[in-house]
Amino acid sequence: MNTLPLHPAVVHVPLGLALVMPLLLGVMVWAIATDRLPGRAWLLALVLQGLILAAAAVALRTGEQDEERFEARTGEAGIAAHERAARAFTGTAAGTFAAAVVALALRHRRRPFVLAGATSVVLSVGMLALGIQAGHRGGALVHGGAALAVPGEGVADPGTAETAEKESSEQDDDD
User: Fold this and answer.
1) What is the domain extent for residue 29?
2) 74-116 tens-digit pLDDT
3) Helix/strand/coil for 28
4) Is the N end or the C end of the chain the one with fewer CB atoms within 10 Å?
5) How far apart are CA 139 and CA 129, in angstroms?
6) How many Cβ atoms sit within 10 Å of the Cβ of residue 159?
């Protein structure tokens, strides 16, 4: 059985997509408003934003499942701050998705589409900022002691070349 937590693997999907969404949404609003793309192309934006929202919801769920496992090592306050940031990210992802739904519905009317599309762009920038905050707090938990000690992944295993090299350099210092 794999004992590694699922949460760290899941969180990278919504965070990675959130990184590109403001630019993608902005370009798509411009391209559709200037007739360079058909209005139905906005469906791509909606699908990607839906993927962010779904993955963020899964990340929240897996984080809750892993919470007790790491709470003893990292403290309740750090986990609570990370969870609040993740919930804010997920809420903003839902708002961005809702604005994208409205924009899709209005894609045949230029001005209302541009307003709804621009709203989704602005919300996606907020979503990105909140995602960075949640990711930073999660990273601080991991690198502050919640990381699993897996030999070969940043933790020197007794008997490895890293340990032998360190011991050798310590002996050289003593000479």
Assistant:
1) 7-149
2) 778 888 888 899 999 999 999 999 999 999 999 999 999 999 9
3) helix
4) N
5) 15
6) 9
